[in-house]
Queue: 2 jobs
Job 1
Amino acid sequence: MKKIELYDTTLRDGSQTEGISYSVADKIKIARKLDELGVAYIEGGFPGSNPKDRMFFEEFKKHPLKNAALTAFGATRKAGVAAKDDPVFAAILHSGVRVATIFGKSWDLHVRDVLRVSLEENLEIIRDSVKYLVAEGLELIYDAEHFFDAYKHNRDYAMATLLAAQDCGARLLCLCDTNGGTLTSQLVAVIADVQKNVKLPLGIHVHNDLGLAVANSIAAVEAGCVQVQGTINGYGERCGNADLIPIVGILKLKMGLDCVTDEQLKELTEVSHFVSEISNMKQADNQPFVGKSAFAHKAGVHINAVYKNPKSYEHIEPERVGNVRRILVSELAGKTPILTKAEELKLQLKKDSPDTKRVVKLLQDLEHEGYQFEAADASFEILVKRALKQYKKFFELEGFRVIVEKRQKGTITSEATIKLKVGGVQEHTSSDGDGPVNALDNALRKALKGFYPVVSKMHLSDFKVRVLDAKDGTAAKVRVLIQSQDERDSWTTVGVSENIIEASWLALVDSIEYKLLKDGAVLPHE
Ligand SMILES: CC(=O)SCCNC(=O)CCNC(=O)[C@H](O)C(C)(C)COP(=O)(O)OP(=O)(O)OC[C@H]1O[C@@H](n2cnc3c(N)ncnc32)[C@H](O)[C@@H]1OP(=O)(O)O
Ligand SMILES: CC(=O)C(=O)O
């Protein structure tokens, strides 16, 4: 099986993303995770750039990675400075790595306008730089910056820069689409021409400015490149780098190429989510292979078919990349998920029965009002039970009041008072909280805990509000999603109203009733 080298640059090019700033500890955690995933190279940073990157490399002198080779990144030497005196090279050598990656100029525009040296001097800079680092005993990966633009404007000069790096001992030439503006067909044609002119193996490093980074990386592998550079989740300057996550999935599962083991592939979802968490970036739900929605089915026709045979609407089994199939319940879902949920709840429901039609109608009416059940699993279960009259009321509300108070100098305070009845016994309590919903939640659970002690073992873990008709301003409806948790499970409930407190109350009541239902609570004196 042909082997492809995965080269990860999340810690260097990925850190050039707007909004990302890794600490040394973050970088170390990510490097260790990537090592477990099985990438061949981890570009740890630019030690000539800043102390943080230099400190990062210190950690691996003491505790090396298990599998991957750590590489230190830098530019070719500065014009007019001998390689031995260039501080960037001194930092690379001090970092203790056995592999260095340096980027050099391929494009005559950059040589003239950015480096401001002659074309010949740039070739000399490349030769000197590669020769020096190789003579110091390092494996050298040469990143030909802007190679595809360079080729378009001056093919012969671009080719000469590669030959300069090759002749001086580089191990691999990586062709970079630095500005990310190259079409796939153009990229493949350039690679074919380069292969006729150089002996060294080729790598590919592309940016995503056309949304083609993954496609271009894959086409480059098909054209013969043996190394793919990219970042986890496609982080990187401007529109990002090629996303290594789908690249790994495609190389392994669609092209049968050796890059990680089957076991390592199962870590793909975990690695992607871990890196987005540490990077403090929102995970894209629709990210191929690993997103929350990558194997989520919403349309009734799809759901019906997936129950019969998952291959009907899935390109691979989600478990192969550590993801899971999800069935979303909504007004578009038809009867199949309702029947399945009923089966899970051990409720008798037949496809064409009036009960099933009633549940579908109720679901569609509520979604029309603004409810959304695809994330609110617990509210959906309560809805089915209510519709089938398999539901008991654990308490009856007589009324609540919520006060939010702000004095001229003091902090803002919230207090809720609640009056309810449980099996004919009236309870009247009050509680304060961090905000009005928290106060209401505390008061409700305080009122119920004497009757149902299990409510003390749950808490509210997330609270989301979405305005539904923004054009109506403050009179718009809001949808509140509440996530609750006990020692074993977490569940989500939903409420909709024009009043945010009422919407929150509806979601809170579902949340508590769900807990009581799932724990088999009984009404006092029942
Ligand atoms: C395509 C890429 O993503 S390459 C990666 C780029 N990464 C970064 O820039 C992040 C880290 N960079 C840094 O910390 C700094 O920019 C440093 C340490 C590299 C340089 O800092 P400074 O010496 O202050 O220079 P400054 O950042 O202002 O300008 C960049 C210099 O690099 C030079 N340069 C750019 N590319 C190269 C190259 N391939 N080889 C040699 N020199 C280069 C430029 O000509 C410019 O020098 P000049 O102003 O003397 O002409
Ligand atoms: C080297 C690099 O990061 C680039 O050319 O995009």
Note: The chain has 18 helices and 16 strands.
Job 2
Amino acid sequence: MNPRFSDALREASEPDWSAGVAHRFVRELGEGSVAPGVMASYLVQDHRFLDDFLGLLGAAIASADTFDARLRLGRFAGTIAGEENTYFLRAFEALGIDAERRIGEPDKAATRGFRALMREAAQAGSYPCAIAVLTVAEWLYLEWARRCPYPRPPHFLHAEWITLHDNAEFGEFVSFLRAELDRVGPSQAVRVGEFFTRAVRLERAFFDAAYEG
Ligand SMILES: Cc1ncc(C[n+]2csc(CCO)c2C)c(N)n1
């Protein structure tokens, strides 16, 4: 039997996919041992990421070819704009990160690369390309979060970041994204594959960057 299109893309993105899913950051998160400075750097950069991610989600909503997809993506946009942003604000408070640092700290190279990729995918006006990048960002996070051990670490900074990505609702959304990628991706297989592979490489680099500087 032919593998699913999304599985073939994931295979083609090795070794970056597995390196991302089993990254030191993810292991330390599961243990609750991420150093506060590393967590702070990661979250400051990731909050920027969320900005362009929402833009990409908007582009996917605009270019979707079915009403059902628009509804599901739209509901998801509402969720992220709500509870996930709340986590960031509580985390910044707990880590003593003020607005000055949050706004003033420059983007790291991986953040710049990822933001540029998301803007490129959004501007392509192609639903398959937008779905490719969204699928990587969500699916890779679901995969690492599912591997985190129980019990969850005691501090909300670690525990909630895992739970946000390891829950039934999120798993269903990733299933939807993969099904969309399987459905619309093959029509632009080469271009879609490039966006997918670049996104996986940047996910890995994004975790690496938390330990730099
Ligand atoms: C570099 C990076 N890649 C992927 C995600 C995962 N992610 C981004 S937005 C979103 C939706 C709401 O949780 C999710 C899961 C991240 N946070 N940072």
Note: Residues 46, 49-50, 53, 80, 84, 137-138, 141, 164-165, 203, 206 surround VIB (CB under 6 Å).
